[in-house]
Each structure stands twice: as structure tokens, then as C-alpha cells.
Design a protein that fits this description.
This protein has 375 residues and is an alpha+beta fold. It contains 9 helices and 21 strands. The chain binds flavin-adenine dinucleotide.
Length: 375
């Protein structure tokens, strides 16, 4: 078996395949847990408050279990449940989606008014007409540690990692895949495609329902850092009239990490991503910080550009290749996929080894784009 791309999803697939005894090698054009794709920037949000689609809940429940199991096996701390405050106007997708999610699934949560939320966390100033939800099990994953841990344990279970090796092409014939890299030709019974923002390059059929967006992550320290530190301050997602913003408690001297989930310019070539910081990258973030955290006096300490791989409907793409049954793929994670990497690794392993999975992933299948591809 071969895994193409060892970022968030590929590292998890490599780990699960190796752990189930498959002879497996992973090929990655860059290094381990690098900062050129979509799985970097120290923290990623994990939450059961799933406003995007209630069908993600069984998957995220299993993802939590698998992250905890990975912590036990590795002895590393990867997931912190610091709690999350989610707030927006009652007619916004965020609040309507959360009502639907909590209506369909029995999950720990509290519904709060804006006033109640601000009494609990006086750091926030929220508009009076906002509703809020508290997700007590929401929190963050240490993203680079997760990728590195999956890869290290995959190797302990017998996987080979071919880093700094670029896959140039692949083909499938007679139940055998052939993968050509810039250094060798590999053959295997099955290929797993997890190329992130490069999925369109390694899987032409995906070009139609797929686009890549540039996103900038920013960190701000404050003279009042203690007010924003873990323990005193939660993770958050706030929907405003000018965008959706999320952030995390300060976990070190770089301060609070914050980013805009909405917006982002289209990237035509992921190899040429603009990695600089421009005033327009920061303008809305500074407006949001100024309005929401009075007295914070934010001082930027760090920034990092990253890419969202957007599917046409914002839901992931996890499936077998329509023509080649021995090729499975996962992409289009649309800016909310990392928390699922652990369970996506398990699902890709099921699909690669058994051709099917017990996990409910029909809603993530490629066939939903049939009309899109035809256009
Ligand atoms: C700024 C930002 C914030 C985010 N926040 C969250 C969040 O809070 N919570 C959440 O759940 N999700 C979040 N996400 C989304 C999540 O991080 C991504 O969905 C996830 O990391 C994607 O993983 P991936 O494996 O698909 O891509 P990647 O991790 O980029 O991996 C793809 C890999 O394939 C390799 N590759 C590509 N082509 C080739 C080739 N030809 N040969 C060899 N190797 C190749 C690349 O080098 C890369 O390492 C965020 C994303 C961004 C950008």
C-alpha cells in the first residue's frame, strides 16, 4: 500500500494502516509536520458543537476516542478540552446549525444569552442581540504534534516514510498501482490519495468541485496576557456581520491565536502561495479584537499563511475512486477537517483493506458532485 501525502490525513492513514498490519509506505514531498500545506499553526479547534452538518457528530465522537487512544499509546498530550464559547445572531447559520445539531444529538452543551456569556467570561463584549452556546468538551489539538506522532508511531508499527520525495504521477491497472516519484517507481495493491491543497493536481476528476483559499493565522500578545490564558479564557467562535472569527487561549508567550474562518483569496497554484502578511489580512481581525476584547491592546507576535481546500458544498470528500477500486482518497476538508484526521485515517484504512467502512460517510461521497463535474 502507498499513501501519497503525509500531512494531517495521510499521517493518520499511514498509522492506522500500519497498525492493522498492512505493508505500507508513505511518500511526502516535504518534511515531517512542515508549514507549507494545511496542517500547521500550533493549534486546531476540536468541538462537538457541529454547526456545519449534524451528520459529522458520529465521526467526531470517534475522532475524540482515537485522539485519546493516540495520547495513551504515545504518552503525549495532544488534545485539550478548554471549552468553547460560540456566539452569533439567532438567525445566523452558526446558531441555527447548532440548534439543529443539539436537537438531533445528545451532547453536553448550554445555551446562553449574550449577557450570561459575558458574565461567565468578562473578557468578551458581545452584541446584545447575540445568542451563545457553551461546548464544554470543545478545545484544541496541537496540530504539528498530532502529525508527527501519527508518523512516528506508524514507523514503529512498520511503515516506511519517504520524505522529501515528490510523486510525479500514478496509474492503476490490473489491480496494481504504479507510483512514479522523482526518485523511484513504486508498485502496490492500493493507493491512498491525501494530497491536501494539491488534490486537484494528483486527481484530475476533483478539479471541478474543488478550490483552494489562502488563509492567514495570527497571534497577539497583550499586557493583560493572564486574562487570555488557558484556564481563565476559553476557545471561541464568534459570527459577526463582517465575518466569522475563531481563537484560542494563550498557551505560550505568542499569546492568543486568532483567524477568520470566512473569506480568503483563491490560490491558483498552492506552490506559489503568498506567505507574506498584508494590511488587509489583519484589518478585520484588529476590528474584531478591538470590538470584542476591550483593553486587550493586542501586539502581533506571529503570523502564518495556510490553505483551505474547499469542496463545492463545504463538506469533506472521502471515497473510493470512481474507476479504480484500489484507489481511495480524502480531500476537500474545507477548513474544518483536522479534528477528524484520526477517524479519517481509520476510514481510509477500512476502505483500502476491506473496500467499505462501518462509519457513516455516504454524505461525503464523490457521487454528489456528478452534475458539477459534468458542467
Ligand atoms: C488556517 C487554517 C485553520 C484551520 N483550522 C482548523 C480548525 O481549527 N479545526 C479543524 O478541524 N480544521 C481546521 N483547518 C483545516 C485542517 O487543518 C485541514 O483540513 C487539514 O489539515 C487538511 O489535511 P490534509 O492532509 O488534507 O492536507 P495537508 O496537511 O496539507 O497534507 C497534504 C500533504 O500532501 C503532500 N503532497 C501534496 N502533493 C504531493 C506529491 N505530489 N507528492 C508527495 N506529497 C505531496 C503535501 O506536501 C502535504 O504534506 C484549518 C486549516 C487552515 C489552513
Amino acid at each position: 500500500m502507498i499513501v501519497l501525502g503525509l500531512g494531517g490525513m495521510g499521517s493518520a492513514a499511514l498509522y492506522h494502516l500500519a497498525k492493522r498490519g498492512a505493508r505500507i509506505c508513505g511518500v511526502e514531498r516535504l518534511g515531517v509536520a512542515h508549514d507549507r500545506g494545511s496542517s500547521h499553526g500550533s493549534l486546531r479547534m476540536i468541538r462537538k458543537a457541529y454547526f456545519e452538518h449534524p451528520d459529522y457528530i458520529p465521526l467526531v465522537e470517534r475522532a475524540y476516542e482515537l485522539w485519546r487512544a493516540l495520547e495513551v499509546e504515545s504518552g503525549k498530550s495532544l488534545l485539550t478540552e478548554c471549552g468553547l464559547l460560540l456566539s452569533g445572531r439567532p438567525d445566523f447559520t452558526l446558531i441555527r446549525g447548532l440548534e439543529e445539531c443539539y436537537g438531533q444529538h445528545d451532547l453536553p452543551h448550554e445555551r446562553l444569552t449574550a449577557g450570561e456569556a459575558m458574565r461567565r467570561y468578562p473578557q468578551f463584549r458581545l452584541p446584545e442581540d447575540h445568542a451563545a452556546f457553551w461546548d464544554p468538551v470543545g478545545g484544541y489539538l496541537r496540530v504539528e504534534e498530532c502529525v508527527a506522532t501519527h508518523l512516528a508511531l506508524a514507523q514503529l508499527h512498520g511503515a516506511d516514510v519517504l520524505a522529501h520525495e515528490d510523486v510525479l504521477s500514478w496509474s492503476s491497472a490490473d489491480d496494481l498501482v504504479t507510483v512514479t516519484t522523482d526518485q523511484r517507481t513504486l508498485q502496490a495493491k492500493c493507493l491512498v490519495l491525501t494530497a491536501g491543497a494539491w488534490m486537484g493536481a494528483v486527481f484530475a476528476e476533483l478539479r471541478a468541485p474543488f478550490r483552494v483559499l489562502r488563509k492567514v493565522q495570527l497571534w497577539y500578545d497583550s499586557p493583560n496576557r493572564a486574562r487570555y490564558e488557558a484556564g481563565a479564557f476559553p476557545g471561541f467562535y464568534v459570527d459577526t456581520d463582517y465575518g466569522g472569527f475563531y481563537g484560542f487561549p494563550a498557551v505560550d508567550e505568542t499569546g492568543m491565536k486568532i483567524a477568520e474562518h470566512t473569506g480568503g483569496e483563491e490560490v491558483s497554484n498552492p506552490d506559489e502561495l503568498d506567505r507574506g502578511l498584508h494590511s488587509q489580512d489583519e484589518a478585520k481581525i484588529l476590528k474584531f479584537l478591538g470590538e470584542t476584547f476591550l483593553g486587550m491592546q493586542p501586539r502581533r507576535t506571529k503570523f502564518s499563511a495556510c490553505m483551505y481546500s474547499m469542496s463545492a458544498d463545504g463538506n469533506f470528500i472521502v471515497d473510493r475512486h470512481a474507476r479504480f477500486a484500489n484507489v481511495v482518497l480524502a480531500g476537500g476538508f474545507s477548513g474544518h477537517g483536522f479534528k477528524f484526521a484520526s477517524v479519517i485515517g481509520e476510514i481510509l484504512t477500512d476502505l483500502a483493506l476491506e473496500g467499505r467502512t462501518r462509519h457513516p460517510v455516504e454524505f461525503l461521497g464523490l457521487s454528489r458532485f456528478a452534475n458539477h463535474a459534468a458542467r
